[in-house]
Structures are given as structure tokens and as C-alpha cells.
Sequence to fold (198 residues):
Amino acid sequence: METFALLFYIGLLVCCFLCLYRIGRGPSAPDRTVAIDILGTVIVGFCAVLGLVTGKDFYLNVALAWALLSFIGTIALAKFLEGRSFDD
Amino acid sequence: MIDILGYILMVIGVLFDIFGCIGLVRFPDVYNRLQAATKCVTLGTVAILVGVALISGWSPMSAKAVICAVFILITSPTAAHAIAKGAYAGGVELWEKSVVDKYAEEIDKS
Fold:
């Protein structure tokens, strides 16, 4: 299990760094928003793997809260990109 | 047996995550990146969560993993749709080799 876990960690960390590259490099604001959304989804999977390996189920609570907050933040950023204010 | 199925699902999920993030880095404009990354990473993360639920059996962890998977299946396409619409309304250009723009035709018709 430990070797498997190491492979999962390395794969998901590679994903996180590719997303961070796009966040830093992205030429426009929607590129960065997409990368932030994808980073949130990858981290939800990472939390699930951590919870399975350590056997503690509060990591899944972290994953649920992270998914909720990431969704709300992405929707707010998308509305901001569309050029509307937050109250219409 | 069901553990092996769970591990296979988790390996598939991690591979899909990596491919989606490579697409996020390599594709040329916002819309291509959006469709590559969102679909691949949604499938990958849902596969990881279902694998965790299968391995951990009947427990609170598996219930939370299933809830999380359903939530991601609902919200990730919604967020991608909102970002695409926001990017189009914000005036981000298509890639110069794009051949079709159905959304502009829809806007012209209405």
C-alpha cells in the first residue's frame, strides 16, 4: 500500500504543479480561472487518497468543504469575468 | 477482489488527472484548455473517489466519498459552462485556427 500511495502522491503533485504553471503563466484571466477550478478538483482527489492511506475520515470532510468552496469561488469569478456585478 | 477493482479505478483516475493537466498546459486557447481539463479531471477525480469508496467498504468514509463524487459530477460541468460563457462575454478571442463558432451564430440569430 505504501508504494502505491507514493505513486498516487507523485501523480497528483505533478497535476498540481501543472495547474500552478498555468495559473502563473496564463495569458488571460479565464485561463487562470480554469486552472484554479481544476486545481480545486485535483485537491479533492488528493484529500480522498490521503484519507484512504491514513485511515482517518476527516480528510473526506476537508474534501467536501473544498469542493463546495471551489465551486462557489469559480462561479463568482466567472460572473466577474462576464463583466457583471455580483448583485444582479 | 473488490479491493483490486478499487485500486484499478484509483490508478485510472490518477492517469486521467495527469492527462487532463497536460492538456491544460499544452492546448492553445481558453476553450480548448477548458474542454480538455474539465472533462478529464472530472472523470479522474470521480474515479478516485469511487475507488476510495470501494476499498473502504461500509463506513462513513465511503458515504462521504460517494457524496463528494456526486457533488463533483454536478458542479464541475456547471462551473466549466459558467467560465466559458464568461470568457466569451469578456471578449477572449478564439484560437486563429478554429473553424467554427456556433455561439456567435446563435447570438446573431436572437
About this structure: Chain B has one domain: 2-109.
